[in-house]
Amino acid sequence: MVKVIFLGLFVSLNLFAQSEALVDPTAPLNFQQKKQGKVYRAAVPKLQSIVMKAGKPKAIINNKEYQKGQWVNGYQVTHIDTDKVLLVYQKKTYTLTLYSQNERFSH
């Protein structure tokens, strides 16, 4: 009878131990693993200047020079005008301007 009780305890403890979540023994104390959530796109680049170089418009975006067709952090430069730059990211168009809405129309 005692053997049956010990066998029952052994089996139940073994099943309980297998149901615990596996923990990395090398992780720091109070370490919480990040949950896999939404994937976010990169921030919309910042336009600093638009220049004409050798007759072709170029945009200074995030402190680098770009021309039509080049890529900036996953955004493609599709058009450079004298006052704006158009970028496309996953079929959505973003318009970059040199000044904010308030600065452009202030009196």
UniProtKB/TrEMBL annotation:
Record's signal peptide: 1-17
Domain of life of the native organism: Bacteria
Keywords tagged on the record: Signal
Name of the protein: MSHA biogenesis protein MshK
Organism: Psychromonas marina
